[in-house]
Amino acid sequence: MATTVTFLFYFSIVSSFFISSNAGRKLLDSESVSTSGASNLTYVCDPSRYSNLGLDMSDFAFCDSKLPYDVRAKDLVDRMTLTEKVKQLGNKAVGVPRLGLPKYEWWSEALHGVSNVGPGTYFDDVIPGATSFPLLFSPQQRSTSPCGRRLVRLFQQKQEPLRDPRWGRATETPGEDPYVVGAYASNYVRGLQDVEGTENVTDLNSRPLKVSSCCKHYAAYDVDDWLGVDRYHFDAKVTEQDMSETFLKPFEMCIKDGDVSSIMCSYNKVNGIPTCADPKLLKDTIRGDWDLHGYGSNIVSDCDSLEVMVNGHKWLGDTGADAAAQALKAGLDLDCGDYYPNFTETAVKDGKVKVKEIDRSLNQLYVVLLRLGFFDGNPIYNSLGKKDVCSQEHIELAREAAKEGIVLLKNVNETLPFNSYKIKKLAIVGPHANATTAMIGNYAGIPCKFISPLDAFRNMVK
Ligand SMILES: *[C@@H]1O[C@H](CO)[C@@H](O)[C@H](O)[C@H]1NC(C)=O
Ligand SMILES: *[C@@H]1O[C@H](CO)[C@@H](O)[C@H](O)[C@H]1NC(C)=O
Ligand SMILES: *[C@@H]1O[C@H](CO)[C@@H](O)[C@H](O)[C@H]1NC(C)=O
Ligand SMILES: *[C@@H]1O[C@H](CO)[C@@H](O)[C@H](O)[C@H]1NC(C)=O
Ligand SMILES: *[C@@H]1O[C@H](CO)[C@@H](O)[C@H](O)[C@H]1NC(C)=O
């Protein structure tokens, strides 16, 4: 005889309940994500594209796929005027029509899934990553890597460790342990970036990239707004030991173990210096000590960091040109914002920075795009298509990852797992009892399908 048991289940915090299916999916136009504008762009060095543009591709050595990436990047950069060069240093790189170089948008987000793009297989928010054993990260990210959007650079991982649980962005991190954070980040990066079959390529500067991933925010950034100090004015006072053991460790692992192709500096100052203008943090540590390898990688600012430097921190009373010059000299390659494009030319003319600093950055940026296949295409991914999005295999992996991230703290009277033969009535109570989008977290991709807790339990008891 079946007993009637009534459960009160209060869903104030909801963990992942996405059991997705193939229903209702549609592929978005990949070009709208990757190359903003030229909607029929396949890859830059496509001969028919050049002939459509009335240009002869053979005039441009940067399109010669037989040459090494650094030679090709240099050829491209050397053809540009100063005015053309500085216009490529912002996230909205405008391109150079007379060279057949299209515009490129460097900014997109992918904390877990490509933000606001989908539907695609949804992976849980990042904070359960702090509890996931065994680590599922690499294969997990292999299946999230967005099919058909391979020419994209993604700002990815909030991978600074969590110091204060009151920080509003705690959920975007894999927790407080610098080693776990570093392991999560480097595996995530491997999954996103690595092209199968190229693991053993020895020249890291030309190793192909599936997507270019970016670890952020560097460094000691975890304050949003506290006691009247916000992240645009925050000056983190950190001892050298704490800096290296806690705040820098995950970034070091992201570079050395993950071979990441980009690092993003943060809005705050560390011990009095804005991170994006600090040559010790950027050039000396990232490129020097950790050897973020030579030219196939870049350092990018958080969006409008230079504006924050001038108007928030009022750093050294800098003008826009001063800030651009300082950041370039510190080793910042790309400005997510418009300070570099707007003020760098003046900075050069005023003798504040040398053109060779700009050339160094541009060369690094174009080698990343060459590694991505932006110039030559990437035929091994041509067979990917709709069938690879929201596939059953990927959904199972997402479910497995979500399960690994759940910790059962208490199970009074062995209530769990629920027994659907015994439970005939179940009350689901709370603000998120019928939640769908509220469950996905922020900077998330759009799931294949939503199942609310209410529906999931309803399916269970019927
Ligand atoms: C896109 O195609 C149109 C016509 O098919 C052509 O005129 C145009 O030049 C092409 N654009 C690029 C960037 O190849
Ligand atoms: C890379 O090297 C490892 C160790 O030698 C080997 O097991 C693996 O098969 C190699 N991978 C490829 C794609 O060659
Ligand atoms: C940069 O220049 C653009 C175009 O002239 C302008 O719209 C924008 O406001 C400028 N930004 C700054 C910070 O000066
Ligand atoms: C657990 O079971 C005992 C014995 O049946 C009962 O007295 C107690 O109320 C139960 N606890 C809960 C939280 O249901
Ligand atoms: C749950 O939400 C859906 C829309 O997301 C709505 O159609 C449905 O009526 C809601 N159910 C309840 C019991 O409120």
From TrEMBL:
Protein keywords: Glycosidase, Hydrolase, Signal
Entry keyword annotation includes Hydrolase: yes
Molecular function GO labels: alpha-L-arabinofuranosidase activity; xylan 1,4-beta-xylosidase activity
Signal peptide: 1-16
One Pfam family recorded for the sequence: Glyco_hydro_3
Example GO biological process: xylan catabolic process
Residue ranges of domain Glycoside hydrolase family 3 N-terminal in the record: 163-365
Ranges of residues in domain Glycoside hydrolase family 3 C-terminal: 406-461
Protein name: Uncharacterized protein
